[in-house]
Amino acid sequence: MFVKTGDKVKVIAGSEKGKEGTVLSVNVKKNRVVVKGVNMIKKATKPSAANANGGVVETEGSIHASNVKVIAKAESNKD
After folding, report:
1. How far, in Å, CA of 10 to CA of 45, rounded?
2. Cα–Cα nearest to 19, from 29, 9, 27
3. How far is CA 27 from CA 23, 39, 54, 58, 67, in A?
4. Is 79 part of a structural domain of the chain?
5. What are the beta bridge partners of residue 26?
6. Are the beta carbons of 56 and 42 closer than 8 angstroms?
7. So what's the pLDDT on residue 9?
8. Nearest 5°: CA angle at 57, between 72 and 69?
């Protein structure tokens, strides 16, 4: 896959087109990436030890790797 964790990418297709962010994780089997601040989704959570009240949590959703373009490689990925 051409995208690695830590790379700075720009979304080139879809509803989030034009947004930029850093890759947080990569799913090679499904060919999807999670980009910081892009494709935010809301999830309802039950009360737990970490979150006593539960409620709605906003987190990043994955997008297909073909919808992103690498702007800058991560420092450790410059091989």
Report:
1. 30
2. 9
3. 11, 16, 28, 20, 14
4. no
5. 33
6. yes
7. 96
8. 20
Q: What is the pLDDT of residue 3?
A: 92
Number of domains in the chain: 1
The pTM of the full predicted model, rounded to 2 decimals, is 0.84
Whether residue 1 lies inside any domain: the answer is no
Instruction: List, for residues 9-55, the tens digit of each pLDDT value.
Output: 999 999 999 999 999 999 999 999 999 999 999 999 999 888 888 89
Average pLDDT over residues 52-61: 91
The DSSP letter of residue 75 is G
Q: What CATH number does residue 59 fall under?
A: 2.30.30.30
- C-alpha span between 68 and 55 (Å, rounded): 31
